[in-house]
Amino acid sequence: MSADVVIRAEGLGKKYVIGHQTQSERYTTLRDSVGRSLRAWGRSARDIAAGRAIVSGDETEEFWALKDVNFEIRRGDVVGVIGRNGAGKSTLLKVLSRITEPTEGRITIDGRVASLLEVGTGFHPELSGRENIFLNGAILGMSREEIRRKFDEIVAFAGVEKFLDTPVKRYSSGMYVRLAFAVAAHLEPEILIVDEVLAVGDAEFQKKCLGKMQDVAGQGRTVLFVSHSMAAMRALCQQGILLTNGRISAGGAIGRVLEHYETRAEALSEVVRQRQPMQSAAVTRACVSVPGDILLDIAIDAERALSCAVEIKVFDRAGAPVGLASLGGWRPDELVSLEPGCNELAMTIPTACLATGTYRLIIALTNPGFEYYDIVAQELSVEVSREMQLGETRVLSQSEGHGALRLPASLAPGSLVTKGRASCHSAA
After folding, report:
1. Could you tell me which CATH number the domain at 281-386+396-423 has?
2. In angstroms, rounded to a whole number, what is the distance separating the alpha carbons of residues 397 and 262?
3. What value does the mean pLDDT take over residues 214-228?
4. How confident is the model at residue 271 (pLDDT cuts 50, 70, 90)?
5. How far is CA 226 from each of CA 118, 192, 197, 273, rounded to the nearest angstrom?
6. What is the pLDDT of residue 215?
7. pTM of the model
8. Structural domain boundaries of the chain?
9. Helix (H, G, I), strand (E, B) or coil at 206
10. In the prediction, which pLDDT does 244 show?
């Protein structure tokens, strides 16, 4: 392997075997279960006698989370791993972090790896924050003295000084992520792997994390970063890998990879889903159209009578946030009152101030300032277009790079005064 190449994947594949239950097996009595076990034992005995392979379960399916993945990453590269949900991004990072073994192919890594994947990995829940810092450093091969030199910096970055001697199982998800990222980034790994877990932190901490990853890259170390924020990808990464159904469909400069991803992204205009048993309220159907303004038809299944805010987070084609439309998020008298069962509503978002182009919408049901009842992870996509109005000479488009909002401006009455040219060069 070249001295500059720190990660090389050759023919990498990861397969899972999924078992399925038939409809009749999902709700059975003890007698049914015993009978089925005896029949399965009989089939196995006949298979062994006939020399056939035994497959556990009546119905199984092979699922390739990764297939024929090949790439090289050089020292000092900051690489964004991009793809829709289920594309194989997290599986790839787990293989690179040596959390799971590949089914086929080979991966070669030159350097010490620190990874921050989903909440709950990397720390022992019964140990305190202090003990987990030293444990992770030891796993990375650092001496106790090396860890001690970094200790205060880690604690200050994470902001968990008061809870250092508390078992991490008592931490909130935000505290856990702050400490986990601080440990991974400050213990001087040659390769830092960070999954979308940063979405758990608040906006200020996310900004600190992005800054720290830029610092890590500036020191000549390698960063692999997974995020659904295209704006963060553009700001942080130079290279990108696009995964589609477990295979690499594009790679190279981050701008080109993001453009490829955005043009291939499926434009969803409708989402249908079910409320889970633990949810107080959930969006079960959402449909978006643009007859002029953006129109959302939303169905909400409520377990009980409650009031909630219906919020629409709007993002531009690059994934940068544009704004938040909310019913009840700022004014309590606008909260939506739900009754037990299915509730239907229509919500409009004016488009007069929006540049033309593609927008993505995420719907959330909240108890403002306290909790989320539901977040619809699938993004709805809309195309906003507008004809030039009388007197206009142009229409603002996202592709011009001026942003997604057309901001109104006006001349203050009586403010335009013509003076001599010399007045333009003197202080007011």
Report:
1. 2.60.40.10
2. 16
3. 84
4. confident
5. 11, 11, 9, 26
6. 84
7. 0.57
8. 66-269, 281-386+396-423
9. helix
10. 87
Q: Which has more pLDDT, 22 or 358?
A: 358
DSSP state of 356: B
Q: Is the pLDDT of residue 135 over 60?
A: yes
CB burial of 28-48 (b: ≥16 within 10 Å; e: otherwise) equals eeeeeeeeeeeeeeeeeeeee
- Which residue bears the tokens 């998020």? 329
Q: How many residues does the chain have?
A: 428
User: Please, which residues have CB within 8 angstroms of residue 20's CB and are 6 or more apart in sequence?
Assistant: 57, 58, 59, 60, 61
Cα–Cα distance measured from residue 389 to residue 273, given in angstroms and rounded to the nearest whole number:
40
Amino acid in the structure at residue 265: A
For 233, 350, 396, the CA distances from 324, given in Å and listed in that order, are 22, 12, 20
- Distance set, CA 308 to CA 312, 360, 365 (Å): 13, 22, 6
DSSP codes, 112-172: -EEEE-STTSSS-TTSBHHHHHHHHHHHTT--HHHHHHHHHHHHHHHT-GGGTTSBGGGS-
Mean pLDDT of 159-180: 85
Q: What is the pLDDT of residue 53?
A: 45
Q: Distance between CA 402 and CA 418 in Å, rounded?
A: 30
Q: In CATH, what class is 66-269?
A: alpha beta
What separation in angstroms does the CA of 86 have from each of 61, 149, 228? Answer: 17, 40, 12
| Residue that wins the pLDDT comparison between 26 and 219 | 219
Residue 382 to residues 231, 317, 355, Cα–Cα distance (Å):
19, 10, 12
CA 110 to chain centre: 27
Report the C-alpha gap between 89 and 325 in whole angstroms. Answer: 31
